[in-house]
Write a structure and sequence with these properties.
alpha/beta, about 425 residues, 2 domains, 8-stranded mixed sheet, Nucleotidyltransferase, domain 5, Rossmann fold, 14 helices, elongated, 7-stranded mixed sheet
Protein backbone atom coordinates (compact mmCIF):
# COMPACT_ATOMS: atom_id res chain seq x y z
CA UNK A 1 0.00 0.00 0.00
CA UNK A 2 1.39 3.43 -0.96
CA UNK A 3 2.23 5.84 1.88
CA UNK A 4 -0.24 8.48 0.61
CA UNK A 5 -3.08 5.93 0.46
CA UNK A 6 -2.26 4.76 3.98
CA UNK A 7 -2.25 8.30 5.39
CA UNK A 8 -5.68 8.95 3.92
CA UNK A 9 -7.02 6.04 5.97
CA UNK A 10 -5.52 7.20 9.28
CA UNK A 11 -7.62 9.20 11.75
CA UNK A 12 -6.07 12.16 13.63
CA UNK A 13 -6.10 10.28 16.95
CA UNK A 14 -4.47 7.27 15.30
CA UNK A 15 -1.80 9.50 13.78
CA UNK A 16 -1.17 11.07 17.19
CA UNK A 17 -0.66 7.60 18.67
CA UNK A 18 1.64 6.57 15.82
CA UNK A 19 3.88 9.64 16.12
CA UNK A 20 3.95 9.89 19.94
CA UNK A 21 7.37 9.01 21.40
CA UNK A 22 6.51 8.86 25.12
CA UNK A 23 7.29 5.45 26.69
CA UNK A 24 3.72 4.67 27.75
CA UNK A 25 0.58 5.63 25.85
CA UNK A 26 -3.16 5.24 26.35
CA UNK A 27 -5.75 5.80 23.64
CA UNK A 28 -9.09 5.72 25.46
CA UNK A 29 -11.97 5.88 23.04
CA UNK A 30 -15.56 5.08 22.39
CA UNK A 31 -16.94 2.09 20.51
CA UNK A 32 -15.86 2.11 16.88
CA UNK A 33 -13.40 4.99 17.35
CA UNK A 34 -10.57 3.10 15.65
CA UNK A 35 -8.57 2.32 18.80
CA UNK A 36 -7.42 -1.20 17.91
CA UNK A 37 -6.58 -0.21 14.34
CA UNK A 38 -4.55 2.71 15.67
CA UNK A 39 -2.59 0.33 17.89
CA UNK A 40 -1.95 -1.99 14.95
CA UNK A 41 -0.81 0.92 12.75
CA UNK A 42 1.75 1.96 15.37
CA UNK A 43 3.02 -1.64 15.48
CA UNK A 44 3.35 -1.58 11.70
CA UNK A 45 5.35 1.66 11.84
CA UNK A 46 7.82 0.23 14.37
CA UNK A 47 8.20 -3.04 12.44
CA UNK A 48 9.06 -1.00 9.31
CA UNK A 49 11.46 1.34 11.09
CA UNK A 50 13.15 -1.27 13.30
CA UNK A 51 13.64 -4.56 11.39
CA UNK A 52 14.00 -7.41 13.87
CA UNK A 53 11.92 -5.77 16.59
CA UNK A 54 9.91 -8.09 18.85
CA UNK A 55 6.42 -7.02 19.82
CA UNK A 56 3.86 -8.43 22.28
CA UNK A 57 0.16 -7.88 21.53
CA UNK A 58 -2.39 -8.83 24.19
CA UNK A 59 -6.15 -8.98 24.67
CA UNK A 60 -8.10 -9.76 27.88
CA UNK A 61 -9.53 -13.03 26.54
CA UNK A 62 -8.93 -15.57 23.78
CA UNK A 63 -12.15 -14.77 21.92
CA UNK A 64 -11.28 -11.06 21.73
CA UNK A 65 -7.76 -11.88 20.60
CA UNK A 66 -8.90 -14.18 17.78
CA UNK A 67 -12.06 -12.38 16.67
CA UNK A 68 -10.96 -8.74 16.88
CA UNK A 69 -7.29 -8.05 17.64
CA UNK A 70 -5.55 -10.52 15.29
CA UNK A 71 -7.93 -9.88 12.32
CA UNK A 72 -7.27 -6.14 12.66
CA UNK A 73 -3.52 -6.75 12.59
CA UNK A 74 -3.78 -8.95 9.52
CA UNK A 75 -5.76 -6.26 7.74
CA UNK A 76 -3.36 -3.45 8.68
CA UNK A 77 -0.14 -5.34 7.91
CA UNK A 78 -1.50 -6.76 4.61
CA UNK A 79 -0.17 -9.92 2.96
CA UNK A 80 2.95 -8.07 1.85
CA UNK A 81 4.15 -7.55 5.42
CA UNK A 82 2.36 -10.47 7.15
CA UNK A 83 4.60 -13.28 5.91
CA UNK A 84 3.82 -16.15 8.28
CA UNK A 85 1.43 -16.86 11.15
CA UNK A 86 1.33 -19.92 13.38
CA UNK A 87 -2.30 -20.50 14.45
CA UNK A 88 -1.22 -22.73 17.33
CA UNK A 89 1.44 -20.55 18.94
CA UNK A 90 -0.13 -17.27 17.76
CA UNK A 91 3.24 -15.97 16.53
CA UNK A 92 3.52 -13.84 13.39
CA UNK A 93 6.67 -13.37 11.29
CA UNK A 94 6.84 -9.95 9.68
CA UNK A 95 8.79 -8.87 6.59
CA UNK A 96 12.18 -7.55 7.62
CA UNK A 97 12.67 -10.06 10.44
CA UNK A 98 10.29 -8.68 13.08
CA UNK A 99 8.16 -10.97 15.28
CA UNK A 100 4.77 -10.44 16.92
CA UNK A 101 3.62 -12.57 19.85
CA UNK A 102 -0.17 -12.57 20.44
CA UNK A 103 -1.19 -13.51 23.98
CA UNK A 104 -4.14 -13.21 26.36
CA UNK A 105 -3.58 -11.24 29.57
CA UNK A 106 -5.78 -13.55 31.65
CA UNK A 107 -2.74 -14.95 33.46
CA UNK A 108 -0.27 -12.05 33.80
CA UNK A 109 2.61 -14.32 34.79
CA UNK A 110 2.41 -16.10 31.44
CA UNK A 111 3.54 -12.82 29.83
CA UNK A 112 7.02 -13.16 31.32
CA UNK A 113 9.87 -14.10 28.98
CA UNK A 114 12.49 -12.56 26.70
CA UNK A 115 12.90 -8.84 26.12
CA UNK A 116 10.61 -7.04 23.69
CA UNK A 117 10.81 -3.77 21.80
CA UNK A 118 7.15 -2.79 22.24
CA UNK A 119 3.80 -4.02 23.52
CA UNK A 120 0.19 -3.26 22.64
CA UNK A 121 -2.55 -4.06 25.18
CA UNK A 122 -5.89 -4.15 23.37
CA UNK A 123 -9.00 -3.54 25.56
CA UNK A 124 -6.67 -2.85 28.46
CA UNK A 125 -9.46 -1.81 30.85
CA UNK A 126 -10.47 -5.47 31.03
CA UNK A 127 -6.90 -6.53 31.87
CA UNK A 128 -5.17 -6.30 35.25
CA UNK A 129 -2.67 -3.68 36.36
CA UNK A 130 -0.26 -6.55 37.00
CA UNK A 131 -0.32 -7.45 33.29
CA UNK A 132 0.72 -3.90 32.43
CA UNK A 133 3.51 -3.94 35.00
CA UNK A 134 4.90 -7.27 33.75
CA UNK A 135 4.86 -6.03 30.16
CA UNK A 136 6.65 -2.84 31.23
CA UNK A 137 9.43 -4.96 32.71
CA UNK A 138 9.84 -6.83 29.41
CA UNK A 139 10.68 -3.68 27.43
CA UNK A 140 14.41 -4.38 27.23
CA UNK A 141 15.25 -5.35 23.64
CA UNK A 142 18.53 -3.56 22.84
CA UNK A 143 18.50 -0.63 20.40
CA UNK A 144 14.70 -0.57 20.18
CA UNK A 145 12.23 2.21 21.15
CA UNK A 146 10.80 0.17 24.05
CA UNK A 147 7.30 1.67 24.02
CA UNK A 148 4.04 0.30 25.36
CA UNK A 149 0.54 1.45 24.42
CA UNK A 150 -2.97 0.57 25.50
CA UNK A 151 -6.13 0.85 23.40
CA UNK A 152 -9.42 0.57 25.25
CA UNK A 153 -12.84 1.87 26.16
CA UNK A 154 -12.71 3.05 29.81
CA UNK A 155 -14.31 0.92 32.52
CA UNK A 156 -14.96 3.16 35.49
CA UNK A 157 -12.15 4.66 37.54
CA UNK A 158 -9.89 1.63 37.30
CA UNK A 159 -6.10 1.32 37.27
CA UNK A 160 -5.85 3.06 33.88
CA UNK A 161 -7.32 6.20 35.41
CA UNK A 162 -4.72 6.06 38.16
CA UNK A 163 -1.86 5.49 35.70
CA UNK A 164 -2.72 8.00 32.97
CA UNK A 165 -5.23 10.57 34.25
CA UNK A 166 -5.24 11.27 37.96
CA UNK A 167 -1.53 12.12 38.14
CA UNK A 168 0.30 13.93 35.33
CA UNK A 169 3.60 12.23 34.48
CA UNK A 170 6.10 13.01 31.74
CA UNK A 171 6.38 9.42 30.50
CA UNK A 172 2.63 8.81 30.33
CA UNK A 173 0.41 10.24 27.58
CA UNK A 174 -3.34 9.83 27.16
CA UNK A 175 -5.13 10.29 23.82
CA UNK A 176 -8.94 10.58 23.70
CA UNK A 177 -10.80 9.20 20.70
CA UNK A 178 -14.51 9.92 20.19
CA UNK A 179 -16.68 7.56 18.20
CA UNK A 180 -18.14 10.35 16.08
CA UNK A 181 -14.62 11.43 14.98
CA UNK A 182 -14.23 8.20 12.99
CA UNK A 183 -15.38 9.39 9.58
CA UNK A 184 -15.16 5.87 8.15
CA UNK A 185 -18.26 4.77 10.11
CA UNK A 186 -21.69 4.80 8.49
CA UNK A 187 -23.45 8.19 8.88
CA UNK A 188 -26.17 6.87 11.21
CA UNK A 189 -23.95 4.65 13.41
CA UNK A 190 -23.46 7.19 16.22
CA UNK A 191 -27.04 8.47 16.04
CA UNK A 192 -28.43 4.97 16.55
CA UNK A 193 -26.19 4.45 19.57
CA UNK A 194 -27.25 7.79 21.06
CA UNK A 195 -30.88 6.75 20.76
CA UNK A 196 -30.10 3.42 22.44
CA UNK A 197 -27.90 4.70 25.29
CA UNK A 198 -30.37 6.40 27.63
CA UNK A 199 -27.92 6.75 30.49
CA UNK A 200 -25.87 9.91 29.88
CA UNK A 201 -22.89 8.62 31.81
CA UNK A 202 -22.86 5.34 29.89
CA UNK A 203 -22.98 7.38 26.69
CA UNK A 204 -19.95 9.41 27.81
CA UNK A 205 -18.01 6.20 28.41
CA UNK A 206 -19.05 4.30 25.29
CA UNK A 207 -19.03 7.16 22.74
CA UNK A 208 -16.69 9.77 24.22
CA UNK A 209 -14.12 7.48 25.84
CA UNK A 210 -14.48 9.23 29.21
CA UNK A 211 -13.68 7.73 32.60
CA UNK A 212 -17.05 7.98 34.28
CA UNK A 213 -19.21 6.48 37.03
CA UNK A 214 -21.91 4.62 35.14
CA UNK A 215 -25.53 4.90 36.23
CA UNK A 216 -25.59 8.02 38.39
CA UNK A 217 -23.87 9.27 41.51
CA UNK A 218 -22.42 6.06 42.90
CA UNK A 219 -21.85 6.49 46.66
CA UNK A 220 -18.96 4.02 46.64
CA UNK A 221 -15.33 4.67 45.67
CA UNK A 222 -15.18 3.45 42.08
CA UNK A 223 -11.39 3.19 42.07
CA UNK A 224 -11.46 0.91 45.11
CA UNK A 225 -14.20 -1.20 43.54
CA UNK A 226 -12.28 -1.51 40.28
CA UNK A 227 -9.13 -2.53 42.16
CA UNK A 228 -11.10 -5.34 43.81
CA UNK A 229 -12.70 -6.20 40.48
CA UNK A 230 -9.33 -6.59 38.76
CA UNK A 231 -7.96 -8.69 41.64
CA UNK A 232 -11.07 -10.87 41.74
CA UNK A 233 -10.86 -11.71 38.02
CA UNK A 234 -7.60 -13.51 38.76
CA UNK A 235 -9.05 -15.66 41.59
CA UNK A 236 -10.62 -19.08 41.45
CA UNK A 237 -13.62 -20.22 43.48
CA UNK A 238 -15.91 -23.20 43.85
CA UNK A 239 -19.68 -23.41 43.80
CA UNK A 240 -22.17 -25.21 46.00
CA UNK A 241 -25.75 -26.13 45.04
CA UNK A 242 -25.14 -24.40 41.71
CA UNK A 243 -25.54 -20.84 43.03
CA UNK A 244 -23.39 -20.40 46.15
CA UNK A 245 -19.99 -18.79 45.53
CA UNK A 246 -17.23 -19.97 47.92
CA UNK A 247 -14.01 -18.01 47.64
CA UNK A 248 -11.86 -19.23 50.55
CA UNK A 249 -11.44 -22.05 53.04
CA UNK A 250 -13.21 -21.75 56.37
CA UNK A 251 -10.92 -21.16 59.33
CA UNK A 252 -10.99 -22.56 62.84
CA UNK A 253 -11.87 -20.20 65.70
CA UNK A 254 -12.62 -17.23 63.43
CA UNK A 255 -15.74 -15.12 63.79
CA UNK A 256 -18.13 -14.80 60.86
CA UNK A 257 -21.10 -12.58 60.04
CA UNK A 258 -23.89 -13.14 57.51
CA UNK A 259 -25.96 -10.40 55.89
CA UNK A 260 -29.15 -11.57 54.15
CA UNK A 261 -31.75 -9.92 51.93
CA UNK A 262 -34.83 -12.15 51.68
CA UNK A 263 -37.30 -12.24 48.80
CA UNK A 264 -40.57 -14.05 48.18
CA UNK A 265 -39.21 -16.09 45.29
CA UNK A 266 -41.96 -14.72 43.05
CA UNK A 267 -41.44 -12.48 40.03
CA UNK A 268 -37.89 -11.24 39.51
CA UNK A 269 -36.99 -11.00 43.20
CA UNK A 270 -34.11 -13.12 44.45
CA UNK A 271 -32.88 -13.85 47.95
CA UNK A 272 -29.20 -13.03 48.54
CA UNK A 273 -26.72 -13.54 51.35
CA UNK A 274 -23.06 -12.76 52.00
CA UNK A 275 -20.93 -14.41 54.67
CA UNK A 276 -17.66 -12.76 55.72
CA UNK A 277 -14.90 -13.30 58.21
CA UNK A 278 -14.82 -10.48 60.76
CA UNK A 279 -11.51 -9.27 62.17
CA UNK A 280 -10.04 -6.05 63.59
CA UNK A 281 -8.90 -5.26 60.02
CA UNK A 282 -12.46 -5.42 58.67
CA UNK A 283 -14.55 -7.83 56.65
CA UNK A 284 -13.57 -10.31 53.93
CA UNK A 285 -16.27 -12.12 51.97
CA UNK A 286 -15.82 -15.90 52.01
CA UNK A 287 -19.19 -17.18 50.81
CA UNK A 288 -22.16 -15.67 48.97
CA UNK A 289 -25.10 -16.64 46.84
CA UNK A 290 -28.44 -15.54 45.46
CA UNK A 291 -31.38 -17.19 43.74
CA UNK A 292 -35.15 -17.59 43.56
CA UNK A 293 -36.55 -19.62 46.44
CA UNK A 294 -39.30 -19.54 49.08
CA UNK A 295 -38.43 -17.81 52.34
CA UNK A 296 -38.45 -21.08 54.28
CA UNK A 297 -35.89 -22.60 51.91
CA UNK A 298 -33.76 -19.48 52.21
CA UNK A 299 -33.91 -19.75 56.01
CA UNK A 300 -32.64 -23.34 55.80
CA UNK A 301 -29.65 -22.22 53.71
CA UNK A 302 -28.85 -19.36 56.09
CA UNK A 303 -29.04 -21.66 59.10
CA UNK A 304 -26.73 -24.20 57.48
CA UNK A 305 -24.21 -21.51 56.57
CA UNK A 306 -24.37 -20.06 60.07
CA UNK A 307 -23.64 -23.48 61.52
CA UNK A 308 -20.86 -24.15 59.00
CA UNK A 309 -19.17 -20.87 59.86
CA UNK A 310 -18.93 -21.14 63.63
CA UNK A 311 -22.53 -20.11 64.31
CA UNK A 312 -22.10 -16.96 62.23
CA UNK A 313 -23.93 -13.89 63.50
CA UNK A 314 -26.83 -13.57 61.04
CA UNK A 315 -28.50 -10.26 60.14
CA UNK A 316 -31.73 -10.29 58.11
CA UNK A 317 -33.73 -7.23 57.10
CA UNK A 318 -36.75 -6.49 59.27
CA UNK A 319 -39.35 -5.96 56.54
CA UNK A 320 -42.65 -7.57 55.51
CA UNK A 321 -40.65 -9.71 53.09
CA UNK A 322 -38.27 -11.48 55.41
CA UNK A 323 -40.58 -12.05 58.36
CA UNK A 324 -41.05 -15.72 57.46
CA UNK A 325 -37.27 -16.12 57.11
CA UNK A 326 -36.68 -14.55 60.53
CA UNK A 327 -39.36 -16.62 62.25
CA UNK A 328 -37.98 -19.90 60.92
CA UNK A 329 -34.40 -18.93 61.80
CA UNK A 330 -35.56 -18.19 65.35
CA UNK A 331 -37.25 -21.59 65.53
CA UNK A 332 -33.96 -23.16 64.40
CA UNK A 333 -32.13 -21.27 67.19
CA UNK A 334 -29.91 -19.48 64.70
CA UNK A 335 -27.49 -16.87 66.08
CA UNK A 336 -29.65 -13.93 64.97
CA UNK A 337 -29.23 -10.20 65.23
CA UNK A 338 -31.83 -8.73 67.59
CA UNK A 339 -32.50 -5.19 68.73
CA UNK A 340 -34.20 -3.73 71.77
CA UNK A 341 -37.79 -2.70 71.16
CA UNK A 342 -38.82 0.76 72.37
CA UNK A 343 -42.54 0.01 72.28
CA UNK A 344 -42.80 -3.59 73.49
CA UNK A 345 -41.22 -6.01 75.89
CA UNK A 346 -38.39 -8.16 74.57
CA UNK A 347 -36.16 -7.99 71.51
CA UNK A 348 -37.17 -7.51 67.87
CA UNK A 349 -35.74 -9.68 65.11
CA UNK A 350 -33.93 -8.23 62.11
CA UNK A 351 -32.41 -4.91 61.14
CA UNK A 352 -34.80 -2.17 59.95
CA UNK A 353 -33.99 -0.69 56.53
CA UNK A 354 -36.01 2.52 56.55
CA UNK A 355 -35.58 6.17 55.52
CA UNK A 356 -33.78 7.00 58.78
CA UNK A 357 -31.35 4.05 58.69
CA UNK A 358 -30.65 3.68 54.94
CA UNK A 359 -28.32 6.72 54.59
CA UNK A 360 -26.32 5.52 57.61
CA UNK A 361 -26.06 2.01 56.16
CA UNK A 362 -24.85 3.35 52.81
CA UNK A 363 -22.33 5.66 54.50
CA UNK A 364 -20.92 2.87 56.67
CA UNK A 365 -20.43 0.60 53.64
CA UNK A 366 -18.95 3.48 51.60
CA UNK A 367 -16.41 4.16 54.34
CA UNK A 368 -15.27 0.53 54.37
CA UNK A 369 -14.98 0.38 50.58
CA UNK A 370 -12.95 3.59 50.49
CA UNK A 371 -10.69 2.57 53.38
CA UNK A 372 -10.11 -0.93 52.01
CA UNK A 373 -11.45 -2.53 55.19
CA UNK A 374 -13.90 -4.67 53.25
CA UNK A 375 -12.77 -7.16 50.61
CA UNK A 376 -15.13 -8.75 48.08
CA UNK A 377 -14.27 -11.76 45.89
CA UNK A 378 -17.54 -12.12 43.97
CA UNK A 379 -17.68 -10.23 40.65
CA UNK A 380 -21.48 -10.14 40.80
CA UNK A 381 -21.37 -8.27 44.11
CA UNK A 382 -18.82 -5.78 42.78
CA UNK A 383 -20.85 -5.13 39.63
CA UNK A 384 -23.94 -4.42 41.74
CA UNK A 385 -21.96 -1.98 43.88
CA UNK A 386 -20.73 -0.19 40.75
CA UNK A 387 -24.28 0.25 39.46
CA UNK A 388 -25.76 1.41 42.78
CA UNK A 389 -26.69 5.11 42.75
CA UNK A 390 -28.10 8.02 44.69
CA UNK A 391 -30.61 9.67 42.39
CA UNK A 392 -31.61 13.34 42.11
CA UNK A 393 -34.24 12.85 44.81
CA UNK A 394 -31.65 11.52 47.23
CA UNK A 395 -32.91 7.94 47.06
CA UNK A 396 -30.55 4.95 46.87
CA UNK A 397 -31.22 2.12 44.42
CA UNK A 398 -29.80 0.15 41.49
CA UNK A 399 -29.49 1.96 38.19
CA UNK A 400 -31.89 1.07 35.37
CA UNK A 401 -31.65 -2.62 34.46
CA UNK A 402 -29.34 -3.54 37.35
CA UNK A 403 -29.92 -5.36 40.65
CA UNK A 404 -29.10 -4.42 44.25
CA UNK A 405 -29.98 -7.51 46.32
CA UNK A 406 -26.30 -8.16 47.05
CA UNK A 407 -25.82 -4.49 48.01
CA UNK A 408 -28.63 -4.79 50.56
CA UNK A 409 -27.10 -7.97 51.97
CA UNK A 410 -23.70 -6.29 52.16
CA UNK A 411 -25.07 -3.28 54.06
CA UNK A 412 -26.73 -5.64 56.55
CA UNK A 413 -23.43 -7.51 56.85
CA UNK A 414 -21.62 -4.29 57.81
CA UNK A 415 -24.26 -3.51 60.45
CA UNK A 416 -23.82 -7.02 61.77
CA UNK A 417 -20.10 -6.42 62.22
CA UNK A 418 -20.77 -3.14 64.02
CA UNK A 419 -23.14 -4.90 66.42
CA UNK A 420 -21.24 -8.15 66.77
CA UNK A 421 -21.68 -9.43 70.37
CA UNK A 422 -18.70 -10.03 72.61
CA UNK A 423 -16.95 -13.31 71.79
CA UNK A 424 -17.70 -14.68 75.24
CA UNK A 425 -21.41 -14.48 74.47
CA UNK A 426 -21.14 -16.65 71.37
CA UNK A 427 -21.06 -20.40 71.54
CA UNK A 428 -18.66 -21.69 68.88
CA UNK A 429 -19.04 -25.22 67.58
CA UNK A 430 -17.35 -27.07 64.75
CA UNK A 431 -19.45 -29.31 62.47
CA UNK A 432 -18.21 -32.88 62.33
CA UNK A 433 -18.20 -32.69 58.53
CA UNK A 434 -15.94 -29.64 58.53
CA UNK A 435 -12.30 -30.13 57.69
CA UNK A 436 -10.67 -26.85 58.73
Amino acid sequence: MKVLELKRQILPTQLQLIEETAPFLLISGGAGSGKTRGGALKSLKLCCEYPGIIGMVTAPAHNILTSATIPTYKEVFTREMWQEFNETTKVAKIKGGSTLFFRTARDPYMLRGPGIGFFHMDEGADCSHLSFQILQARLRQPDMPCQGWITTTPLGFNWLYEEFVRISRDNYVRIKARTEDNWFLSPDYVEKLRESYRDEQFLLQELEGEFIEIGGACPFDMRALNAMYQATKERTFRTELGFIHISSTRQVAKRYVIGADAATGLGEDESAFICAIASPAGLEEVCSGRGKMPESEFADILYKKSEDYNKAYTVVEDAPVGKATLIKLQELHCNLYKRKSKTSIGDKLGFPTISTTKPMMVADLADMVRDGTIVIHNLDILEQLMSYIRDEKGLYHATLGARDDYVSALMLLVQGMKNLPMASKIEVSYPSTWVG
